[in-house]
Amino acid sequence: MAHIDYYFATLSPYTYLAGTRFEAVAKKHGATVTYKPLDIMALFSRTGGTPPKDRHPNRAEYRAQELVRQGKKLDMAFNLKPAHWPTNAAPSSYAIIAAQNAGGGDLGALVHAILRSVWAEEKDIAEDAVVKACLTEAGFDPSLADSGLLEGADTYAANLEEAIDRGAFGAPFYIVDGGQRFWGQDKLEELDLHLSGKL
Predict the structure, then answer these.
(1) For the whole model, what pTM was predicted?
(2) How far apart are CA 187 and CA 27, in angstroms?
């Protein structure tokens, strides 16, 4: 049975556009998953990337077109300029880490609820009430938003270092236990084929 380490950021539009397709691929192949939220801006700066605000206009304009196209292609509500972006991603990331450790809910649904809050619902995921509502929606105890802070902070920092050590440089980033790496929501088909033994 394959295992996938899933590196992502709760502020990433491309992670949002993955929807729950990654979870469907993992389930199809009986793969286990460890969710590893991280600080995407720190990952960019450490691996040669450029934050969106500092990119050349050509890149920024293409990104804007492509995100809108992908949203339409996937039939997903998408706001290119959400009211609360960027914001502090740490609280939502800590909650995901705490939920994973606690168990009892649907982690994929939690991640998607948080990302949907940013990119489709104009909510601020730095707010405690928003994070708690997402935890509840995904079947977790909302108090995890409070109880998992210390452990979440340590794991969040460790996820960044591990991602860099293992070759990640963006989000979403999927690493299969054999070392095969897949970057981006548009590589889920390739991940599926790899897990099928075809790639």
Answers:
(1) 0.96
(2) 17
